[in-house]
Amino acid sequence: MATVPVSSSHGLKPVVVGVGPSEASRAGVAWAAEEAVLRRLPLRLVHALEWPPGAEPHPHVAHPERTWSAHFRAGGEMVLREAADLVRERHPDLEVDARTADGPRARVLVQQGAEAALLVVGAKPLNVVEQLFVVSPLGVTLTAHAGCPVAVARRQQVTAVDPHLVVIGVDGSANSREAMTFAFEEAALSGARLRAVTVRHLHPGRPTGGEGDDVENQSRAELSEATAEWREKYPRVEIEYRVKYGHPARALAHTAAHARCLVVGSRGLGGFRGMLVGSVSHVLLHQAICPLTVVPPQGGPAAY
Q1: What's domain 1-155's superfamily in CATH?
Q2: Number of helical (H) and strand (E) elements in the chain, helices listed first
Q3: What digits encode the pLDDT tens for the residues 141-195?
């Protein structure tokens, strides 16, 4: 592993962001830097050197293998320097640590996540067709195996239409406690209001009349109960409740379209009529328009 010289981390867990040469990566770096400033944490920029099959990262032979290897590694360090310069230009007082690591991106970032308070990756915006057919193995792997919250920031959503709104999907399961804590912290630190959303996956559709009122009232009561502990801890956070109907991922993506970020748990089958957050988080990796943060339960696995 190689590093670009930086200042001390003072023992705090950093915000870690994967760095590459793409516009999507730069979006992730910008969003991660803002989160680090908000949370008063150091920022760690990580570039994975994915060597081609058969390549030797540390060759003990003369030209041309050694020369090619040196150029490949230097290219990765250049990407890191450019990202670090971008961050320091916008946030000159932010503590920045930049490093390269040999290996596939997913494995490198999962390993880095074991030391992180938050792991961030940038992602390009997907059109409707891509949402249906494009698979995101990196996002799925990170949300399944990283031992910390994972945020996916898309390029055109770095500046949110409503930066003072944080949305959390609530399913009523015990596994959603860490997600609730993250969402309330995000709202409190950014001065945003919090929108707690539950989705009723009912058939054939939204109930009407007296039945609809009963479902709405019961759902809001469940949301109030699910957030009660955190309302006491964060009394200054303004909270609103929303009950949506239909497919959970689509409903959450729609209600959070212009939010600062959308927060969900990584898995869990809760009491709110079967809102399966494990599969929902995977669908949201493709459909969420705003930055998406997936929070694992405490003590979740971090192996790859």
Answers
A1: HUPs (3.40.50.620)
A2: 9, 11
A3: 788 778 899 999 876 544 446 678 999 999 877 667 899 999 999 999 999 999 9
Where helices occur in 22-136 by DSSP H, the ranges are: 23-39, 65-90, 105-113, 128-133
Task: Of 171, 170, 165, give the one whose Cα is nearest residue 291.
Answer: 165
Q: How far apart are the first and last CA of the chain?
A: 19
Q: What residue spans define the domains of the chain?
A: 1-155, 160-304
Q: Does domain 160-304 have CATH number 3.40.50.12370?
A: yes
Listed range (172-176, 186-190, 198-202, 209-213) with the worst mean pLDDT: 209-213
Two tokens, residue 247: 């497919």
Q: How far is CA 45 from CA 41, 53, 70, 83, 116, in A?
A: 13, 25, 20, 8, 11
CA gap 155, 194 in Å, rounded:
23
Q: How many CB atoms lie within 10 A of CB 299?
A: 8
